[in-house]
Design brief:
By secondary structure, the protein is α+β, with helices and mostly antiparallel strands. The chain contains five helices and five strands; from the N terminus they run H-H-H-H-E-E-E-E-E-H. The chain has a five-stranded antiparallel β-sheet, with helices on one face. The chain is elongated, with a radius of gyration of 31 Å.
């Protein structure tokens, strides 16, 4: 008897909540003029959120292809060949190396190279050097960038002669 009464109250409550959720009180289907802007803004946000799902992300084709200059890529690996390579991602243009000492040097370095553009240009190359004591001076990083750019130009000139 006690369960029957609880069940009836629960069912009636669920029906009342369902009916209350269905009714909007707005008979014309259009929002009042004062809230039209906020509702349309909310609809825009909800519309943007429902345009994608997890499956769209998995099936999506990349909109933008990242291109890496092959001469900068090869020159970076040539110039920094004394450093052990930890990870390489040719699609994003990132080379991460471990610590190593240059020939004739006593200090160990590690480098992260980012090639951002397909152009053979100084703006396309970003080299971050670090020693065990912390980041190195900007002039040292610039010298390594210049060496990579010079080697890349040499590779391009040698390639044109073929």
């Amino acid at each position: 008897m006690k369960y029957g009464k609880t069940l009836r109250v629960t069912v009636i409550g669920a029906i009342c909540l369902g009916l209350a959720a269905c009714g909007g009180g707005n008979k014309g289907g259009k929002p009042p003029a004062s809230t039209a802007r906020t509702i349309s803004h909310k609809e825009e946000i909800q519309g943007a959120a429902t345009k994608s799902s997890v499956f769209d992300f998995l099936n999506a084709k990349p909109d933008q292809t990242v291109q890496v200059n092959r001469y900068l890529w090869t020159a970076s690996l040539d110039i920094l060949s004394f450093l052990p390579v930890q990870s390489v991602d040719p699609f994003t243009g990132v080379i991460v190396t471990g610590y190593g000492t240059p020939p004739g040097g006593g200090r160990s370095y590690r480098a992260t190279v980012h090639i951002k553009d397909p152009a053979l240009d100084a703006r396309s190359l970003n080299v971050a050097l670090q020693s065990k004591g912390g980041p190195v001076s900007a002039s040292t990083s610039r010298a390594v960038e210049d060496a990579i750019l010079s080697r890349a130009r040499q590779l391009r000139i040698a390639d044109k002669k073929l």
